[in-house]
Amino acid sequence: MRIVIPLFDRFTALDAVGPYEVLKFLPGVEIVFAATEPGPVRDVPRWLAITADATFTDIDSCDVLVVPGGPGARELLRDGELLDWLRRMHQGSIWTTSVCTGSLLLGAAGLLTGLSATTHWAAIDVLESFGATYTAERVIFQGKIVTAAGVSSGIDMALALAARITDQTTAEAIQLAIEYDPQPPFDAGSPAKASRAARALLARGIR
């Protein structure tokens, strides 16, 4: 099973690495990071790089497509070559997935029209501009398309997907392997739960 994770400048690292850490445990899996050119691709704020081993033109098909998000995703919403590539990958995929604002790229490629989908809470309006209906859930399955909400939800998505590809016991074993047992110190993971002060700090820019 070939899993392809496309990378682009200013992607969000956990969007890609979270699903990778889960899906790499699947039996017989091959995970390929692809980009416009082989070599390191930097996240935002460009402190971390992941090496792309293949170019988009090297990849003619995949079984699972995992599209990360990040600030750079918004800059690619009119990139015809990338969107055409996403459509081709989707045509032959078993599963087409996204994390965070990666769903905006699926939407721009016309893959979410008429579907329920999720994304980062700050990108709801953009997602719906592509004909999708935003649903406030961590992970949404719509046929073979799976969208995950912001950043950390990519781990949830990958575990749910692992259960579909194999079985629940295997997915539970993977969850145990990575000791994914969320117990956050604060209940501030959504706009509805975060304090006014936290929301104001985020709006100004944390750094």
From TrEMBL:
<dbReference type="InterPro" id="IPR002818">
    <property type="entry name" value="DJ-1/PfpI"/>
</dbReference>
<keyword id="KW-0456">Lyase</keyword>
<protein>
    <submittedName>
        <fullName>DJ-1/PfpI family protein</fullName>
        <ecNumber>4.2.1.-</ecNumber>
    </submittedName>
</protein>
<dbReference type="InterPro" id="IPR029062">
    <property type="entry name" value="Class_I_gatase-like"/>
</dbReference>
<dbReference type="InterPro" id="IPR052158">
    <property type="entry name" value="INH-QAR"/>
</dbReference>
<dbReference type="Pfam" id="PF01965">
    <property type="entry name" value="DJ-1_PfpI"/>
</dbReference>
<dbReference type="GO" id="GO:0016829">
    <property type="term" value="F:lyase activity"/>
</dbReference>
<feature type="domain" description="DJ-1/PfpI">
    <location>
        <begin position="1"/>
        <end position="162"/>
    </location>
</feature>
